[in-house]
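[User] I have long wanted to understand how a fold can be written as tokens. Those tokens are not coordinates but codes from a learned vocabulary of shapes. Could you go through the record with me and say what the backbone is doing? Thank you; the sequence and its tokens follow:
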Amino acid sequence: MVSETNRIEYKQQLTDDLEKEAVAFLNYREGGVIYVGIDKGGRTVGVGDIDGDMLKIKDRLKNNILPSCMGLFDVVVENINGREVIKITFASGVEKPYYIRKLGLSERGTFIRVGTAAEPMPVRMIESLFAKRTRNSVSKIKSPVQRLTFEQLKIYYEGSGRILGDHFASNLELLTGNSEYNYVAYLLADLNSVSVKVAKYAGDDRVDLIESNEYGYCSLVKATKQVLDKVNVENRTLTKITSKEREEKRLWNPVALREAIINAMVHNDYTLEIPPKFEFFDDRIEITSFGGLPVGMTEREFFEGYSVPRNKELMRVFRDLDLVEHLGSGVPRILKSYSKECFLFTENFLRMVFPASEKVTPQVTPQVTPQVTPQVTPQVTPQVQELIKVLNQEMNRQEIQKELHLSDRENFRSNYLKPALESGIIEMTIPKKPNSRMQKYRLTASGIRLKDSLGYIKEGE
């Protein structure tokens, strides 16, 4: 292991100064990482009671630090040199200064990372940071509507194996100091006025709009999943058949595209009610979010994966629902496929521009050569084409949705399953009982012929 640095702290075991080190990293502009189970010399000793210590860590960070740092840390298990250790990753907080609750906002309770140590924060720095503390954040803005429901959010939590209890609004920080719903609650509620636009243009400019979709007026989680599903459809698979093999590639790298979409949804500045937008052109996709870089963050720190969540409450919910993996992981994942030049920064906006692997011309039918399989046919929609591509045997609804990477059941039913059934391309295995829990779907004879004509049937099938 490397030695301790300004961003790395080792602890042989869980000790009483956890909160001190945590506060120091929260107040540090680059955040940091604490490893429990590694001694000061960098030797891995492991943790005896992994589950117990992880529960203690989460409980102490939740209850012993102010302002709340929920959504600003990750606690995971890592195997290093054959031993299990606990890794705690901290993002730099936007509500500095953070301090230990019982010691108060003073030099005794407020710390900053200096080199490899957590040092008391000088009074002058405490006063300066407190004066600059972000007050106009979505967590502090009162929801314009107080009669909110959260059935969609509860369903998504249940789908992830979690239950939202009676005090979920408080636990997820959806309340203001006056116990009223805040703007985070409004964004996550079943009904709101936030609409996310996905537009498609013919050509490489915004002159000829050929398709405009709005996803929203619902929980931001649902809107995000709808946008992910729509973009997945537009991210077509291009197939090229040569004399030796069949080559397939998508217009955009799906991992990078997913990270970019979620990054835009979670880190967008919603205080002025400007949602992110997604635009398809013949040669690229543009993803624009409002807010620019967080205050104090440089472009270098952004690209190196330092995390300063603009909306830590949204970040926490998205992590709970497995839409976000780890703090600061999104941008490095994108950079594996696209260069830094694909990111454009302005004072108020961040735009990601990803070039298509091949130029898309939806208004023109491509000339077919013996080597290239046509991607679009007039008989079926792109969604139905994607469905028949993955339907290799009798499959139930859940299996098909999983293969298509679709999370929204209604979107799948309306845009994939229903038109495929109505066109006679697929059929039910139990047609007399369409709602049977044993129901599966398979290609009809015409569906098999269409799949073959599209080049989706591999040799041997």
